[in-house]
Known about the structure:
5 strands; globular; 481 residues; 5% strand; 5-stranded parallel beta sheet
Amino acid sequence: xxxxxxxxxxxxxxxxxxxxxxxxxxxxxxxxxxxxxxxxxxxxxxxxxxxxxxxxxxxxxxxxxxxxxxxxxxxxxxxxxxxxxxxxxxxxxxxxxxxxxxxxxxxxxxxxxxxxxxxxxxxxxxxxxxxxxxxxxxxxxxxxxxxxxxxxxxxxxxxxxxxxxxxxxxxxxxxxxxxxxxxxxxxxxxxxxxxxxxxxxxxxxxxxxxxxxxxxxxxxxxxxxxxxxxxxxxxxxxxxxxxxxxxxxxxxxxxxxxxxxxxxxxxxxxxxxxxxxxxxxxxxxxxxxxxxxxxxxxxxxxxxxxxxxxxxxxxxxxxxxxxxxxxxxxxxxxxxxxxxxxxxxxxxxxxxxxxxxxxxxxxxxxxxxxxxxxxxxxxxxxxxxxxxxxxxxxxxxxxxxxxxxxxxxxxxxxxxxxxxxxxxxxxxxxxxxxxxxxxxxxxxxxxxxxxxxxxxxxxxxxxxxxxxxxxxxxxxxxxxx
Length: 481
Ligand code: FAD
């Protein structure tokens, strides 16, 4: 009798190497059926339009790799709760393996599927591919989850070092009775006309190879990370976030690539840059820790005093913000970078998010949803925790009264204005002195730069100093209330 197959259910782990669910299936020795289920309810987190573009290309890359290994990927669309047990039944599978997710709906779904499979007499086993420290393995002395980053990360670093990443199977045995599945092109994940994602392909190469190349390139630049990471005008950060979100590279691989690079570099090894970079991976871990232990994080204020905050319904303000037309160049540059590439530099994410929440007084959840739709790295844990951090309503958040001044932030982190010039080309000819506050530029400078305020570039939608006062008054009201 032919060996019964093992199903490997891919989710946010779109890679072959260091994929414990895939390795476990291969090690069982029988045929393997790799499957991906497109759930319209997006249960592993948000699936916005930019994310759909990424998913298309990442699945195409995964399809190629799995075909080369000998077991083609089966694409199914619908509810995994029904499709996974049905596929197991129809193919006579003996086992199903997958890598764990930490989003509340995904946890509930996966538990139900595991129970259904086990009830039907199958083996169902899950693994860790996405985190260095799973949320339940790190706790305070009192056995509580952490709410503050620094002690959380210290506790992580006090634990045994993250395990070495696993390799990739050399080959797989396909299963002749596997269903045909859908054609990726029929899922319509890419935009139609107009193709607003046309620029994405110039910046990104979704898939495991693209992730590996990005990692290698970054190691060359690691030494400058701590110094340059806040500068949107320099390519100083890794830009690994979409690859990490989609699981094209895992954090163990990133961790040990850095480790290997440090050892190979010898005396001149950039230890302090590596420590800073690893702490950012730590923030990713912390966001997942928070989401796991506080599953309402994407919905409710972590600090409930914010429940009474007087957010404004400012449609015009939101529209100007989302389209990069606030009249504040650093904010507009960030929002346009986001639109054009599906990504925004971290410093500018903070400034732009602060502008929406504190200057415009628009509820952080609205901004979070815009990012969900437009970021290629949109991630339920990182996005929700970061928006709450900026809003001041979150765990270990920036205090509300610390309000980013978009002019000063621009002048400090984009001093020559190279970033603004790139994304707001209508200001490109303005001298650096005025680039972050064009409304203060003398008429002659504006004329020479070909700028007509309110025509070629918007006048500021608000006065930051007045908006700051208004925000502080709104905050004072909930503090007293
Ligand atoms: P690097 O500086 O090279 O950092 C390495 C990795 O660490 C990143 O790839 C990322 O996985 C992780 N990381 C870095 N900074 C953070 C952080 N502050 N919080 C959590 N993880 C971090 N990141 C997302 O991955 N998805 C999101 O949806 C997301 N939404 C955000 C929304 C707001 C309002 C803000 C302020 C930040 C958000 N971030 C999000 C965090 C951060 O901006 C990005 O992870 C970072 O800009 C990615 O660039 P990089 O890969 O070059 O980062």
